[in-house]
Amino acid sequence: MAATRKDSVVILIHCKDRKGIVARVSGFIHDFGGNILDSDHHTDEETNDFLMRMEFSTEGLQIPPSEIPAAFAPIAKIFDMRYEVHSSSHRLRVGMLVSKQDHCLADLLQRHKRDELCIDVPVIVSNHDTCASWAELFKIPFAVYPVTKETKPQQEKQVIAQLKDHRVELVVMARYMQILSADFLAHIGCPVINIHHSFLPAFIGANPYRQAYERGVKIIGATAHYATQDLDEGPIIEQDVIRVGHRDTVDDLVRKGRDLEEIVLARAVRRHIEHRVLVYGKKTVVFD
After folding, report:
1. Its pTM surpasses 0.70
2. In sequence order, what are the beta bridge partners of 84?
3. Is 107 a catalytic site residue?
4. Above 70 in pLDDT, residue 205?
5. What are the φ/ψ torsions at residue 124 (nearest 5 degrees)?
6. Catalytic option among 232, 240, 259, 288
């Protein structure tokens, strides 16, 4: 049974480092009767970027959570901050993209069912009907849009329309074996998380396990990252590795890799929905 969650608000902040930022943000929360539950921050000494996550309880708060962004705006202006305000009571609407391989989709749906991932999954979209049984099992709408090189622009428009019709706030590529175009990413209107079956930046593109086998690597990995128009080069959220040996075949690497892909993707989705990830430039800060 999942533990009862306290209602809270998370503020994510990104700006150039200056004296007094933590004090001013903490003072803002104190002035409105908030109680800080968790606070973490980081300064990139090379770029002078300051990044912070602060979470505070809504109990005793003297302002509705919906009014916090406007109330915080004057402080943000002083420090030239980019900031986001999120309520823990809001369940993010996550659309799943999948092709034929079902392991990542099945893992996420089971974690969702167990309430390990506090999300809603309003739709699963695929270019094949292979995973339809998972959607049926979990009673989630399933849409299939086959794609070829010639029909890709039209197919992407159909996928975008389906996701927007379901008011999706995050897209997860659960082994969706299509490269999303720059036009898709520009029009989808929300972040997209991809799981890549290698330890990026090694072995980008197709068949990474075959590439790894041919190089005789001793570890293989998986990487969850935000999708950008630069293939497999988006900001990295989570990675992990497992050892392999000279007796392992390509099939062994694929089997071991599947376990990693599930774990890494689930961690990345959890950290995103808990608002623990801040992107700056080509990098991320992920607050534990």
Report:
1. yes
2. 12
3. no
4. no
5. -120, 130
6. 232
